[in-house]
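Hey, can you fold this one?
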Amino acid sequence: MTEAELRPIVARNIAACRKQAGMTQAELAEKLNYSDKTISKWERAEGLPDLVVSQNIAELFGVPLDALLRDDTPKPVDDARSARQLNARRRMILLMSVSLCWLVATIAYFALKLAVPTLPRVWLAFIYAMPASFIVCTVFTCIWWKKLWRLLSISGIIWTLAVAVHISIRLPAIYLIYVVAAVVQALFLMFFHFLRIK
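Sure. Predicted structure:
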């Protein structure tokens, strides 16, 4: 089989897998670290992804690599999952993981209250649960979702850490932690913008 004969087959198969997963060309491009123009070029049979990228595409859609090269529409290995079901499961996993942070904070609060009833400021366990929750969100958004959600999660870490430090440490000028947080946020936004341009 020549490359000219292979291009339309791969193009149909990539487009079919992408549509079945409920993805746009831009979303697929983001996951593969390519431009949406490149994905469009592949789907118009004007080019072919290299072997490594083809393997990444196959893994992303849950199909064997040779399914992208066959002259039939590939069936995902687990075709019971639709894109909506998958996203619903992911949201539920995220919610359960964040809830676990708050469960740990609650257990710590009650354990400290029972063990040392006179210990002051035990309620800080709940304040520390806020940045922990955003750290969990950041991990899952980096794995599953778009860059905007990552940006919001990391911003949450920055500002909830600032709040936790401000409430935890009793110093006259501790409110300046928010200036530090603003600088870190600005640096992160510039880094995020740099990645977007790249």
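The CA atoms of residues 86 and 193 lie 29 Å apart. Let me know if you want another pass with a different chain boundary.
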